[in-house]
Design brief:
heterodimer; A: alpha+beta; Immunoglobulin-like; 2 domains; six-stranded mixed beta sheet; 2 helices; flat; B: mainly alpha; Rna Polymerase Sigma Factor, Chain: A; Arc Repressor Mutant, subunit A; 0% strand
Chain lengths: 173, 179
Amino acid sequence: MDRFDNELQDLLRDYPMPDARAGFYDEALLRAAQEGARRTRNRWLVTGFGSAIAAGIAIWFLSGVFMTAPTLTAPDADIPGVTIALEKTNTVNLVFASASRLDSATLTVVLPEGIELAGFPGQREISWETSLNEGKNLLPLKLIALTPAGGELYARLVHNNRDREFRLRVDVS
Amino acid sequence: MSIPDENAVFERLLRPHLDRLYRLAWRLTGSKAEAEDLFQELLIKAFGKLDQLLRIEEPGSWLCRVMYNLFIDERRRFTRRRMTVVDESHLPEDGFAGVAGDSDPVHDNERLQQLKRLDRALAQLSEEHRIVVLLHDTEGYKIAEIQELTGVPEGTIKSRLHRARARLKEMLIADGTFS
């Protein structure tokens, strides 16, 4: 072991992490009891996606759930993806699942070059304020591919200074 | 068991392990939001298995294993590292808040900069290397404990640890942290 090994060991030993925020453990215990009891009651309803989380927000991109949805791309893709048809209106369903009701959340969708949201021509970033109900909230996005390039769509959900950003690969066929 | 009793038993059983579990969540995920998610999901799962938990001799170890499995399952399911972007720095500034404040401000600042460079270097490691080096060298887990937690063979853990340290050293020499 040389001097650098010792220095690295010292540095790693000192590598910090922030403490849990005040009250977090109490909140988490309470939510676990509430959510745990609810899940036990509703076990038959559990879909397999389930993940109630600390922020109260989870998001999944789903397609293929509805008749209007585009086809799923290859299962080995690194990020979730959909394939949409060129120059047609394609509905991509985003499902937001929330452990509790969220008022005044801001949702921002950033579109890749060459893909537009129907009704918002020329806009690549669209934000709006929304409320989420407890459970699943469906957001159908009507996408139009103007070029075959495709790209990544970003969706950011902000609530009470907490935010989550997710990516969806959009391929065009 | 009535609901209030159940909640009280759950809390009494879990509370002694919360710090350890939160630390593990942080080291696994490397971000506050994901750590809180993982921690919360574990507690919810644990509540549903309260009867089983009451019969377990070492609930802390069991909870850590369940947390690790949840983490791996989530990674497989959503490939979250790629989905949850990129803007969230690996270790927020408040993680460094306790570093400064000793008697020697020059040394404090130098140490702070070293730790920030370590943070950046850790972010360059593969997830499996980052986790093993943090659990072993930062959190003080023994190899056998990491094996029990992850199910990864001892030899593989040692190899990952060796490679992770070597890579960190290389990066920290290259950026002038070690000279």
